[in-house]
Amino acid sequence: DVVLSLKGITKRYNKGLPGEVQVLRGVDLQLSSGEMVALVAPSGAGKSTLLHIAGLLDQPDEGAVEIGGEDLSGRSDRRRTVARRRDVGFVYQFHHLLPEFNALENVVLPQLANGVAGNEAEKRAMELLGRVGVAERATHRPAALSGGEQQRVAFCRALANKPRVLLADEPTGNLDPGTSDQVFGALMELVRGTGLAALIATHNMELAARMDRVLRLQDGVLVDA
Ligand code: ADP
Ligand code: ADP
Question: Which residues belong to any copy of the ABC transporter domain (predicted)?
């Protein structure tokens, strides 16, 4: 059951200028429901570019991005935004939680924006927070949480609207090694409970080895690592 499919993705920056650089040279990827795949790449290899294209934030020059069997490359921005909000969850190195809202509200708000009723949204948010061990921190604002807790909340927010695909860019890259291990474990648990397809960029080979597959982005293509 392929959820995310990338076919022949190419991307250049600074086209026609002296600084022209071809970052992606024909990326193929098939991610199945329930699969967790690590993406490893040296800095500058094009990892963020690839994640943004896979998450419909950026357009490739060539190739197809299919989510749930629908080719979304070349569709209107509006259509792609709708698909992104419904089907894609993002996690970054920094949590990007809203500072004025508490942990619970940060997980509730994206659901309200998607038309979920308040009591439903709150129930789901508490359930997610509980699964990553921060339910008792629900009424704290991000600034009152530790770095590991902030990332756990960010994972819950990313999954709040039950996306089909999770894209993570160094989700534990900001944390010290011990915390990183625990928080990464929490993310894996959360994903395992869902059937979500996850592509997780990391520099940490030990964490990468805990996933189903490891892919390396090298010279603009993905190879098995
Ligand atoms: P990574 O995430 O692996 O570090 P990126 O996808 O951010 O790599 O960048 C890959 C290459 O593309 C780098 O050489 C970077 O300088 C270049 N690049 C990224 N974004 C742009 C942009 N908007 N304009 C021009 N060059 C870019
Ligand atoms: P909203 O307007 O409801 O925040 P968007 O369609 O703008 O929804 O964003 C959907 C998802 O894409 C969110 O998870 C958001 O964090 C992410 N996102 C949106 N724009 C960017 C961007 N420029 N860079 C990185 N992530 C983004």
Answer: 4-225
